[in-house]
Design brief:
- The complex is a heterodimer of chains A (240) and B (336).
- By secondary structure, chain A is α/β, with parallel strands linked by helices.
- Chain A is built from 9 helices and 10 strands.
- Chain A has a 6-stranded mixed beta sheet with strand order 6-7-8-3-9-10, with helices on both faces.
- In chain A, strand 7, helix 6 and strand 8 form a beta-alpha-beta unit.
- In chain A, helix 3 packs across helix 4, helix 3 packs parallel to helix 5 and helix 4 crosses helix 5.
- Chain A is globular.
- Chain B is mostly helical and 336 residues long.
- Chain B has a domain of 216 residues.
- Helices cover 70% and strands 1% of the residues of chain B.
- In chain B, strands 1-2 form a two-stranded antiparallel sheet.
- In chain B, helix 12 crosses helix 13.
- The two termini of chain B are 18 Å apart.
- The chains are: A alpha/beta (240), B mainly alpha (336).
C-alpha cells in the first residue's frame, strides 16, 4: 500500500529550479533513501512535502488525503514527522521536555505524555540523559533527540534529513541501527543521506536527484549501477 | 528496562520540599505581616510590589514563555483601569464586575491586535507593539467620552465601601486584595507553565520551525499567549484605578509601564514564574525609596539605578537573579 505519492512537484527560487517535476511514491513500512549532490533539492523536497515551503505545482498524497498546500502543523498532526538537516532542538529545555512536546500531539495528559516520552527516550538509548538540557548533549545525542521527538508524535511517515551528517565515524553505526529499529516499529521512513554505503544498507528504494530533477528511482542495487547517477553523484573510478 | 521503570516512577515535577516550605511560610508571612502594624508607607510599598509582580508576570507569559517581546503591554493595564472607572461612573457597575469587563475587553483587543501583529516576529513585533501602546495613549487623550486628557476622577464614596472597592481610612483592604490577586495570578501562571500549553509555548519560544513539526499551530498559540497575558494585566489596571481613584492617559497608558514590566522580568529571570516576583521585590522598593529621599518622581534616579542594575545583570547574570538559586534546587539530578 502506498503511504505517500508525490506527482510533478515543482518549486523555483528566482531562476533556479530547486525541484522540477519530481514524482515518486513510497510503500508503507519501507525505507526510501534520497541521494544527490549538494544543491540537488533534497531538503527542499522535504520542505515541500511537509508544508514548510509552498510548492508551485504538483500533488502530494498521504494515504488517500491530498496534503498539498497544508500548513506544517496540520501535516504533522496527520502523522508526518520530520527531522532537520540543521538540528533544531529546544536548547533550553531538557531532553525529556523536548520529547514530551512531541508526545503532546497524541496525549493531552501531562503524566501520560511524560511516560510516553520516557519510552521513546529509552528506545533511542538516551534514558540516562533525560534530565540534561538539549544544549548539553553531543551532536550524536542531539540527532537521537530529534529522532525521538519526531517519533513521539507517533508518525506513520517519518522524514529524516541527514541523520548521520556531522557526526563522528564511531557514532554512525549506532544511528544506522536506530533507523533499522525504527523501521521495525512499522513507521515508514524517507531519509536523505550522503553516505552511499548507509543508503545501500538500509533502503528498500532509492530516489536520486540532480539539479532538482529525479534522475533515477528503484532498488539500491539498480541505482548503484545507473549511469546517470554514477555520472552526477557517485562518480566513476578509473580502473587503471 | 529497569532504568525506564525507575524513570517512570520519578515524580512528575522536581518538587523541593524545602522550597515548598519556604513558599508556604512566605505566603503565611504576607498574610500576617499587617498584623504587626505595618504603616501606610509599607502597606503601599507591598501593594506596589504585588501589582508590579502581577504585571511583570503577565509580560512573562508572552515574552518569557512564547518569546514575543511586547513593548506596548501598558495598553492592557490602561484598558483595565478605564473599564472599571468608566462603568462605575457611567452606570454604577461595581468594580468587582467591571474588573471582568476590563479583562474581557483586554482579551478582545489582544485578539484584534494579536492576529495581525503576531505575524511579525523579533524586533518587528516589539516595534509594532510599542506603537500600539502609544496609540492607545493618544486615542484616550482625545476621547471625550472617557474624559480625554483630563481622564476620569472616580466618584468617591463617603465611607469605605467593599462594593465600590474604595477604602479611605486605611490601605489595609487594598493590601489584601492585591495580595490575593498576586497569589491567584502566580498560581495560574505556575499551572500554565506545567501544562501542555506551557510546554508548547516554550517550544515556540525556542524554535518555531521545530514547533510546527510537532503539530503546534504557532500563530494560534502566540495569540492564546497574548490573550492570557493581556487578561492578567487588565485587573491590575482596574485595581490601580480603584486605589488612586484618578486616572488619565498619561498615567495608565504610559510607555513607562511597558518598560518597567520588562525590566522587572529581565532582572528577576525571564521565562520563570519566580522571576517577576524577585524582580518586583527589588526594583519597586528602589523606586519607592528614591521617591521618598529625592522627592517627586525620584529625580529619575530610580531609572538610572534600574539601568545600572540591568546592565550588571545582563553582563554577569543574563538569566536574571533567579540564576543565583543553586542548580540542585531548580534542576533534577543528572546522571553522567
Amino acid at each position: 500500500m502506498k503511504i505517500l505519492s508525490v506527482e510533478n512537484l515543482s518549486r523555483s527560487f528566482g531562476g533556479i529550479k530547486a525541484n522540477d517535476n519530481v514524482s515518486f511514491s513510497v510503500e508503507q513500512g519501507s525505507i526510501l533513501g534520497i541521494i544527490g549532490p549538494n544543491g540537488a533539492g533534497k531538503s527542499t523536497l522535504f520542505d515541500l512535502i511537509t508544508g514548510y515551503t509552498k510548492a508551485e505545482s504538483g500533488k502530494v498524497q498521504f494515504f488517500d488525503k491530498n496534503i498539498f498546500g497544508l500548513s506544517p502543523d496540520k501535516i504533522s498532526n496527520l502523522g508526518v514527522g520530520r527531522t532537520f538537516q540543521k538540528l533544531k532542538p529546544f536548547a533550553d529545555q531538557t531532553l525529556l521536555e523536548n520529547v514530551m512536546i512531541g508526545a503532546f500531539v497524541k496525549e493531552k495528559n501531562v503524566k501520560k505524555a511524560r511516560d510516553n516520552a520516557l519510552e521513546i527516550i529509552n528506545f533511542v538509548d538516551l534514558i540516562e540523559k533525560r534530565h540534561h538540557f538539549a544544549k548539553e548533549l553531543s551532536t550524536g545525542q542531539r540527532k537521537r533527540l530529534e529522532m525521538a521527538r519526531a517519533m513521539a508524535i507517533e508518525p506513520k511517515l517519518l522524514l529524516m534529513d541527514e541523520v548521520t551528517g556531522g557526526v563522528d565515524q564511531k557514532t554512525i553505526p549506532g544511528l544506522v541501527e536506530l533507523i533499522k529499529k525504527m523501521k521495525k516499529t512499522g513507521v515508514t521512513i524517507i531519509t536523505i543521506e550522503h553516505n552511499i554505503n548507509i543508503i545501500m544498507e538500509i533502503s528498500d528504494n532509492v530516489l536520486a536527484l540532480d539539479q532538482g530533477k529525479s534522475i533515477a528511482f528503484g532498488p539500491p542495487r539498480e541505482i548503484q549501477k545507473n549511469k546517470q547517477v554514477i555520472d552526477s553523484y557517485l562518480g566513476t573510478f578509473d580502473a587503471a | 528496562m529497569d532504568k525506564l521503570i525507575t524513570a517512570k516512577s520519578e515524580p512528575l515535577w522536581n518538587t523541593n520540599n524545602k522550597v515548598v516550605s519556604i513558599v508556604y511560610g512566605l505566603i503565611t508571612l504576607l498574610f500576617a505581616l499587617p498584623l504587626f502594624g505595618l504603616n501606610s508607607f509599607y502597606l503601599h510599598l507591598f501593594i506596589m510590589i504585588f501589582m508590579h509582580a502581577v504585571m511583570a508576570q503577565s509580560w512573562n507569559v508572552i515574552a518569557g514563555f512564547s518569546g514575543q517581546i511586547s513593548l506596548g503591554h501598558g495598553a492592557f493595564f490602561g484598558i483595565g483601569a478605564y473599564a472599571t472607572s468608566f462603568f462605575y461612573m457611567q452606570y454604577g457597575v461595581t468594580p468587582w464586575i467591571s474588573i471582568f469587563i476590563g479583562i474581557f475587553i483586554s482579551g478582545v483587543f489582544a485578539v484584534l491586535i494579536g492576529i495581525p501583529m503576531l505575524r511579525l516576529s523579533g524586533h518587528y513585533f516589539a516595534i509594532a507593539t510599542l506603537l500600539i501602546g502609544i496609540s492607545f495613549q493618544v486615542v484616550f487623550q482625545r476621547w471625550d467620552l472617557v474624559g480625554a486628557a483630563s481622564g476620569l476622577w472616580v466618584t468617591m464614596t463617603p465611607e469605605d465601601s467593599w462594593i465600590a472597592l474604595q477604602f479611605h481610612s486605611s490601605k489595609l483592604p487594598y493590601y489584601y486584595i492585591f495580595l490575593i490577586f498576586f497569589l491567584i495570578s502566580f498560581f495560574s501562571v505556575w499551572v500554565l507553565s506545567r501544562s501542555k500549553l506551557g510546554y508548547r509555548l516554550r517550544a515556540i519560544r525556542d524554535d518555531p520551525q521545530a514547533a510546527l513539526s510537532l503539530g503546534i499551530n504557532v500563530s494560534n498559540y502566540k495569540i492564546i499567549a497574548y490573550v492570557i497575558s493581556a487578561m492578567i494585566m487588565a485587573p491590575m489596571g482596574s485595581l490601580f484605578a480603584q486605589y488612586i481613584l484618578i486616572i488619565d492617559p498619561d498615567r495608565v497608558f504610559n510607555i513607562e509601564i511597558s518598560i518597567i514590566v520588562l525590566l522587572i522580568t529581565v532582572l528577576g529571570g525571564i521565562g520563570n514564574v519566580w522571576g517577576p516576583i524577585i524582580g518586583a521585590s527589588i526594583l519597586i522598593p528602589i523606586s519607592e525609596y528614591s521617591r521618598i529621599y529625592l522627592g517627586g518622581t525620584g529625580g529619575a534616579v530610580d531609572l538610572i539605578l534600574y539601568g545600572l542594575i540591568l546592565m550588571i545583570i545582563c553582563v554577569f547574570r543574563p538569566n536574571g537573579l533567579i540564576s543565583f538559586i543553586p542548580k540542585d534546587i531548580l534542576e533534577r539530578k543528572k546522571q553522567r
